[in-house]
Inverse folding.
């Protein structure tokens, strides 16, 4: 719902998001970001279920602990090769659908 505050129109998040979803580029970016965040969350969840530290996973994946921390933060992109090494550390396979 549009509101005027000091002659400035304001919009709710839902209004802006709904408008953004009309754009194909926005949809693609949103879906890509959602998938990346989902993977980051899964990595952290698996690591914690296996009672592993980020350092443990990093050592098994032959990479610095900071890479695991960056992936889990959800604020950084990563390559498919990096993701494959992390999956290997968990004795998992990557399946693309």
């Amino acid at each position: 719902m549009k509101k005027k505050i000091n002659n400035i129109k304001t919009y709710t998040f839902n209004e802006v998001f709904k408008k953004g979803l009309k754009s194909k580029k926005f949809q693609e970016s949103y879906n890509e970001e959602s998938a990346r965040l989902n993977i980051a969350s899964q990595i952290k969840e698996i690591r914690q279920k296996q009672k592993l530290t980020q350092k443990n996973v990093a050592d098994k994946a032959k990479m610095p602990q900071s890479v695991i921390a960056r992936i889990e933060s959800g604020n950084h992109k990563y390559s498919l090769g990096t993701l494959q090494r992390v999956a290997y550390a968990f004795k998992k396979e990557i399946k693309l659908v």
